[in-house]
Each structure stands twice: as structure tokens, then as C-alpha cells.
Write a sequence for this structure.
């Protein structure tokens, strides 16, 4: 087994007395696309700054290619950062911007120009070599920043909310391009975002952060289908959360007492523990074909048409505090004010410690 | 009624601008008069007195001295002002607000007090009266100005630009020279030209701190002691013209905004 490219070991950080990272450990594999996903204040940007060398952690160590880089300044570590505001040098041409890192390495002018042109071609801006940054659009500046960071062939490329300043359509387009570029160059990307759709679309490895801790990490499919914590069940996609109390576990099935009645589902939990049951919107069944777990009836409060499906919000008749979030097919005739029977399949219920 | 108010406003504006500019206009007008006394009536333009000024060795050497002092003291002011602005903007310093206040304090102190203080200090330290002493005096008055101009333009949006340069492998001095200075160029030039303007026609400090070799304003004062002379008008107009050029350069550099 080879060592990971980046090994973050037990890193904690405080700004003054305010802890922003609490004992975080994370491994990043060569050639991987890692997404740090979390709300603002979750510590994801601080973790990226620690990786980039802009912040030295209060505790813990960072190893890159096996070398201790904890206190190595940004200039001397094999990482480059694409900043959220792009941070292009306004007084230099696009070509000079991209060639800057090579110039600092002492690469001669001709090689520099050739490599800068190559990097600009990679991001689809071959004809912008002589332009000034202010002549480019937001999306183009973003690509220049990407080319500038990639041209010096870093071991890890760090992206700080790189798509945050772009409009939605451009964001989705750049998202696809980022993934394509990452595949082509094979550099490990670490990308910070608070957009869970962006995270699911891009991540090879998704790291969900909250309150200075890693809540959950793994392939996005797994994090979505089987979130480890209640936070990641609600932050990475939506869920209906049902509070309950675990009963006896028998034959790999646990009986959970809820306000909608007892529910038996696969899994284990200590008897008497408070648990939460999370159900993804696409797993809730409204009327029609019934699932094997009945969840009582609910009154539909809102139906939002989303193109390919309808997002249905409904309040449980048995427990008015319980909001169901369901996904109905686009042709469904469900309307606000309807009363529907709600059910689901036991195997789709996610059992979480509360 | 409204017409009367408009008329009054116009008259007021003309009076104000007349009050400010009439002396200068008179000065320039009579510098172009060929007669031996700068008094009305105006008898037609002539460059006689300008010729006299430029062939006067004392005045021309004073003019060169003034230029040297202005350029060198402004270079020193703008360099020191830039470095202190960068330090205050980029690093967390203990008592930062207090220190920033102290560095801009000389702006509020009269030139006379600064000149006298320097005179006493140089006397005590054994530094003779000279153009260098006057130049140091000009740095004392212009450094706070350069600092204030450059510091006000040094925003947080440049921090990431400097970070990006560091991230791409630039050592600190290259970050300063290749990134910060060019990005801050408008403010730096503005500080430089404003310092030049102030140094160029500064009198009190130069008067107190120079002896044999001196600057143009002091030389003009020497000339004036022997009575009103058309040469003083001509040289005064020259001083004014240079000041105008410097002020225009200052405005152009500070007010020129690059499209973002």
C-alpha cells in the first residue's frame, strides 16, 4: 500500500480563542478529486489554507509526499491555490500571469511562453495570451487562474470556492470542464464548496465538514445514500428526519419506536438509544404503490414543480411537527391540500445516532 | 427674484476666483513686460526678463538645486511612505492605530516648527546647514503625505494578489517589486508628484536649513529684499508653471482609474 499524497494528521486550529478546526485527519490520494463540503464557518476554507501554507495550524501535522510541510511557506510547498477572486495580476498580460510561476523558478523566456501557451490551450483560452485580465469575463479569468496554478505542475491543486462568483449556468459548465481538466492533467484537486450539487457532480472523494470537524467522508454516492451523521443527511441532499428510540436488536433488525408507531428496519443500535431515521425524498412513496413501512397520512402543504419532478412538502397528520419532503414524478396529480398516505421501504431508511 | 439670485451667485463666484487668481495673473502679465518696473500700463509682451533670469547664474543654480532637492526628497518620501503603508496594511502591529496617527502627525505641525526643530537637532548633531539638510526636512513633511495617500489606496483586495505571487514561488522582495509596486503605481506616482509640488516651492525649511547653496524660493526671497524687480515676476511665473505641471501630473495619476 502506497502512502497518501497528502496526510493531514490531527490538525486543530484556533483564531484567538475561537476553535475553527477540531482534531481533523484526512488523507488525499494521488490523482483524486477531493471536495471539502460544508456550510460557512465549518472550517473548510481554513483547512484549505493550512494545506496551501497560508495558515500554520495550532496543533497537528501536514505531510505532502511524505515530507512534513506543516510550517513550510506557500512558495516552497508543492501546492498552488486558485483563489475565489482569481487574484490575477492586473498589470500583467494573461500570458505573463500564467508564466509567473515558471519565471519564479528561473525558467527561460522561450520555454515559459511555450508552456504558458500550452496551459492556456488546456483551459480553452489559447487566443487570450496577449490580453489583459480586465478584458476577460469572469469565467475566462477563472480559467486563467486555473492555468496559472497548473502550469508549474503542483502535486496538489487547491481551489477555494472556484465557482462561487459565477452565475448558475456558467457554474455548471465550468464544473464539467474542471472535471475534464482534472482527468487530463491527473493532478490531485482539493476543492472547497458549500454547494452540495457541485460536490456530488465533481467529487471522487467527498468530505462533509461541520463546526470544525469532518462529519463524513467517502465517495459521494455512499455519502448520499448512507450518510454517517444527521448533519450530512441534511446537508448533502434533503431528508425527512424521524426521531425515535431504539428497541431490541434481533437478527440484524432493530425495532424503533416513533410517534408514527414502531418501525422495524435493518441495522443495529444500543437498546434505549435516541436515534434518527432519515429518508431521502425519492424513497418516500405517496399513496399509490405501498412500501413495506407505513408512515401514516399527511396533508400536502406545498407542491413545487421542478421540471423533471415535483417536490412535495407535507405535514404528518399523526405528528404535526414532522415535515415530509418527497419527490413525486412530474405527471403526478398531487396538489396542496390533499391528504395522502405515506410509506417507504425499510431498506431505504437510514439509521442515524441522534 | 431667481434671476437676481443667479446673478449674485455668479458675481460671488467671479469674486472668489478673481481673488484667488488675480495676483497670479498680474504676476505673469508683468513678467512679460519689457519695462524696468513691473507697473501698469502693460506695454506689450516681451521675454526680456525670462532671458535675464536664465542668464543669472545664481537663479539658474538655485533652480537646479530646487529640482534636485525636490526629486531626491520626493523619492525618499515615497519609498519610505510606501514601505510604512505596506507594513501597516499587511501586518498586525501592536498599537497600529496610534503609530499610524503618529506617522501622519507632521501634516498638522507648522513648517516653521519642523524647520526650527531640525535646525536645533542638526546643530546639536553637528550636521552643517546644506541642501541635504533641507532635503531631509522635506522628507519629514512629505513622508506623512505619501504614507497617507498610499495607505488609503492599499485595500484588502490586493492581499490575495500578493498571496498568489507568494504561492507561485515569489520571494518577498519580488512580491513587493513585481506585484505590489506596479499595482500601487497610481498612488505611488500621485504621492511622488504631490511631494515634488510641496518641496518645489517650500520656503521656511529651506531658508532655515541652507546657507550658501540654496533653493529657488530662498533665492527669490533674496532677490525681493532689494526691491520689486521684473526678474522676480519672471522667475515666480516659472515656479508657478512647474507647480501647475506637477499638480496636473498628480491629478492625472491619482484620478486615472483602470477598468477593473
Amino acid at each position: 500500500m502506497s502512502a497518501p499524497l497528502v496526510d493531514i494528521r490531527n490538525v486543530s486550529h484556533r483564531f484567538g480563542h475561537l476553535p475553527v478546526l477540531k482534531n481533523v485527519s484526512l488523507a488525499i490520494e494521488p490523482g483524486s478529486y477531493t471536495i471539502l463540503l460544508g456550510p460557512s464557518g465549518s472550517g473548510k476554507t481554513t483547512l484549505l489554507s493550512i494545506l496551501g501554507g497560508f495558515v500554520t495550524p495550532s496543533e497537528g501535522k501536514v505531510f505532502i509526499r511524505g515530507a512534513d510541510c506543516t510550517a513550510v511557506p506557500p512558495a516552497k510547498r508543492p501546492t498552488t491555490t486558485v483563489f475565489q477572486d482569481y487574484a490575477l495580476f492586473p498589470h500583467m498580460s494573461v500570458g505573463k500571469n500564467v508564466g509567473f510561476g515558471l519565471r519564479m523558478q528561473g525558467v527561460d523566456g522561450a520555454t515559459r511562453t511555450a508552456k504558458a501557451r500550452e496551459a492556456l490551450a488546456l483551459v480553452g483560452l489559447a487566443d487570450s495570451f496577449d490580453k489583459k485580465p480586465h478584458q476577460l469575463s469572469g469565467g475566462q479569468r477563472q480559467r486563467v487562474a486555473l492555468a496559472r496554478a497548473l502550469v508549474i505542475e503542483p502535486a496538489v491543486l487547491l481551489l477555494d470556492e472556484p465557482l462561487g462568483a459565477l452565475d448558475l449556468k456558467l457554474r455548471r459548465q465550468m464544473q464539467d470542464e474542471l472535471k475534464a481538466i482534472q482527468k487530463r492533467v491527473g493532478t490531485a484537486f482539493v476543492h472547497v464548496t458549500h454547494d452540495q450539487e457541485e460536490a456530488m457532480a465533481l467529487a471522487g472523494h467527498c468530505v462533509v465538514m461541520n463546526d470544525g470537524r469532518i462529519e463524513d467522508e467517502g465517495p459521494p454516492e455512499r455519502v448520499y445514500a448512507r450518510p454517517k451523521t444527521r448533519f450530512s443527511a441534511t446537508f448533502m441532499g434533503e431528508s425527512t428526519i424521524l426521531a425515535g428510540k431504539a428497541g431490541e436488536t434481533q437478527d440484524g433488525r432493530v425495532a424503533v419506536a416513533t410517534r408514527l408507531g414502531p418501525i422495524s428496519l435493518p441495522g443495529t443500535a444500543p437498546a434505549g438509544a435516541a436515534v434518527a431515521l432519515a429518508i431521502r425524498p425519492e424513497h418516500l412513496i405517496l399513496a399509490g404503490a405501498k412500501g413495506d413501512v407505513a408512515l401514516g397520512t399527511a396533508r400536502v402543504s406545498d407542491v413545487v414543480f421542478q421540471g423533471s419532478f415535483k417536490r412535495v412538502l407535507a405535514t404528518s397528520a399523526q405528528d404535526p411537527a414532522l415535515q415530509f419532503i418527497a419527490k413525486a414524478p412530474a405527471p403526478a396529480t398531487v396538489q396542496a391540500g390533499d391528504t395522502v398516505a405515506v410509506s417507504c421501504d425499510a431498506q431505504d431508511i437510514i439509521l442515524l445516532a441522534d | 427674484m431667481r434671476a437676481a439670485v443667479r446673478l449674485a451667485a455668479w458675481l460671488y463666484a467671479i469674486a472668489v476666483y478673481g481673488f484667488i487668481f488675480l495676483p497670479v495673473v498680474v504676476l505673469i502679465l508683468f513678467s512679460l513686460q519689457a519695462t524696468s518696473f513691473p507697473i501698469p500700463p502693460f506695454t506689450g509682451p516681451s521675454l526680456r526678463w525670462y532671458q535675464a533670469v536664465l542668464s543669472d547664474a545664481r537663479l539658474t543654480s538655485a533652480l537646479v538645486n530646487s529640482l534636485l532637492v525636490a526629486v531626491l526628497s520626493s523619492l525618499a518620501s515615497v519609498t519610505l511612505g510606501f514601505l510604512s503603508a505596506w507594513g501597516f496594511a499587511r501586518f498586525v502591529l501592536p498599537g497600529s492605530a496610534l503609530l499610524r496617527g503618529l506617522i501622519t502627525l507632521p501634516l498638522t505641525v507648522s513648517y516653521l516648527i519642523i524647520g526650527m526643530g531640525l535646525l536645533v537637532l542638526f546643530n546639536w548633531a553637528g550636521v552643517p546647514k546644506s541642501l541635504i539638510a533641507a532635503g531631509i526636512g522635506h522628507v519629514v513633511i512629505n513622508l506623512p503625505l505619501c504614507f497617507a495617500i498610499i495607505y488609503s489606496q492599499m485595500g484588502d483586495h490586493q492581499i490575495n494578489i500578493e498571496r498568489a505571487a507568494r504561492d507561485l514561488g515569489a520571494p518577498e522582495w519580488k512580491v513587493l517589486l513585481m506585484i505590489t509596486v506596479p499595482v500601487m503605481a497610481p498612488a505611488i506616482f500621485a504621492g511622488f508628484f504631490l511631494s515634488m509640488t510641496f518641496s518645489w516651492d517650500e520656503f521656511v525649511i529651506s531658508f532655515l536649513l541652507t546657507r550658501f547653496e540654496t533653493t529657488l524660493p530662498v533665492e527669490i526671497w533674496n532677490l525681493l529684499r532689494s526691491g520689486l524687480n521684473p526678474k522676480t515676476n519672471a522667475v515666480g511665473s516659472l515656479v508657478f508653471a512647474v507647480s501647475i505641471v506637477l499638480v496636473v501630473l498628480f491629478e492625472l495619476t491619482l484620478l486615472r482609474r483602470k477598468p477593473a
